[in-house]
Specification:
By secondary structure, the chain is an alpha/beta fold. It has eight helices and 27 strands. It starts with a strand and ends with a helix. The structure holds flavin-adenine dinucleotide (FAD). The site of flavin-adenine dinucleotide has 37 residues, from α1, α2, β14 and α7.
């Protein structure tokens, strides 16, 4: 088996247990009961509901950590409408969900997009952007508002250099060793990677459009100390031109009200934030209504059997884009998904309070 470990995501296991595992890339297809596209709150809760019915889950997410919008867009903002939780932040909700699903040992395939979907005999096959193949009788699309993808440099020649001399994500720090590195951006990602890659790079500079940073004050102070000590350069302005023969990069032009400077670099790492887009799901043969997936509200099955959708990505009369609506949809969805996973078994409805079988699954027996 040709296995390559991928990113260990910060926050993939905030519960402190070792049960929620990050996936590895395997050369042969991974066979499981349910593949969930999207590790937002609704995808995470689907693991719990599926687990109660003995279905094992693998999750795929473009982000490098679970939590979807809650973790990415409002980790520190309080949520007040989760039943029986008077308030918790987006990150706290994610952490609680991770703790709740830990007994079911889901496997996470992070920093990769679910790209291709094929129907096989009795099951579906999903292939991710880094080539991981997963097969399951039930696929659940919990893709929210779509994949979080990086905002790219809107400059001629940027696309031809992507993955070679221009990057929007750090998959392996070693890729930046001995590089003449320019990091662009003023948020936490830009500042964190400036501080982390500074010891590895041959030379490092940071470019941001204004001399005011949105990152943690401590990171900004440490960056300014490095600049003050002459260990790195800081350029204030916008990158307006790329130089060198693509896919190579030799320098960029940085423009500010004071004029233009040529900044030599062979590698550019840009952190201009994330945007959301439906991406490859648009090609999966689903009935869509304005980029939202139509479902049967009794089962949350799409127009294709064995292919389910829940959470913000779906539409039906009266749909509310709320976390609690997604939780309800997950609970109903697994009832039908069970039939694809275990066609010969009868589904018995049980309460978590009184079923010793469920207590054993949850590790509380
Ligand atoms: C600022 C803000 C405040 C909010 N406050 C509240 C609130 O108080 N209460 C409330 O109930 N709701 C609130 N919401 C809405 C709530 O966050 C959403 O309803 C919820 O996140 C939807 O969950 P989800 O799991 O369906 O999707 P998301 O949270 O959007 O997660 C979907 C995940 O799928 C991934 N994905 C998509 N496509 C792919 C693909 N092809 N391959 C791999 N990964 C993919 C994305 O990267 C993402 O991580 C708020 C939203 C915002 C922005």
């Amino acid at each position: 088996m040709n296995e390559r470990a991928i990113l260990t995501p910060a926050g993939a296991d905030p519960t402190g247990t070792d049960r929620a595992r990050t996936g590895t890339i395997r050369s042969e297809p991974i066979r499981t009961d349910m593949v969930i596209v999207g590790a937002g709150p609704v995808g995470l809760f689907a693991v719990f509901e599926a687990g109660l019915l003995n279905m094992r889950c693998h999750l795929i997410d473009n982000l490098d950590r679970p939590g979807g919008q809650c973790a990415e867009l409002y980790p520190d903002k309080p949520i007040y409408d989760i039943p029986a939780v008077p308030h918790c932040t987006g990150q706290e909700l994610t952490d609680l969900l991770m703790k709740q699903i830990a007994p079911f040992e889901p496997t996470f395939h992070l920093s990769q997009q679910a790209e291709r979907l094929e129907r096989l005999e009795g099951r579906w096959r999903v292939t991710t952007s880094i080539g991981q193949v997963l097969e399951a009788p039930a696929i659940v699309i919990a893709a929210g508002a779509g994949s979080f993808v990086p905002r790219r440099l809107p400059l001629p020649g940027a696309e031809a250099r992507e993955g070679r001399s221009i990057h929007y994500v750090v998959r392996r720090m070693e890729d930046f060793r001995d590089k003449d590195l320019l990091i662009a951006g003023g948020g936490d990602s830009a500042l964190d990677w400036t501080l982390n890659l500074h010891p590895l790079a041959a030379r490092l500079a940071l470019v941001h459009r204004r001399d005011d940073f949105r990152a943690a004050p401590d990171s900004v102070m440490r960056m300014r100390d490095l600049v003050g000590a002459g260990h790195m350069a800081l350029h204030i302005g916008q990158i307006t031109e790329l130089h060198g023969v693509a896919p190579e990069l030799e320098a960029v032009t940085v423009k500010s009200p004071k004029g233009e400077v040529l900044v030599p670099c062979d590698t550019l790492l840009a952190f201009y934030g994330l945007k959301m887009e439906l991406g490859p799901l648009a090609e999966w043969g689903l009935n869509l209504d304005r980029n939202l997936i139509e479902v049967d509200t009794a089962t949350f099955e799409t127009n294709q059997s064995g292919l389910f959708a829940i959470g913000d990505i779906i539409t039906y009369p009266g749909k509310l884009k709320l976390i609690l609506s997604g939780f309800h949809e997950a609970a109903l969805m697994v009832q039908k998904a069970f039939r694809y996973c275990f066609p010969d078994q009868k589904l018995v409805f049980r309460y978590t309070t009184s079923s010793t079988d469920l207590h054993e699954k949850l590790g509380v027996a």
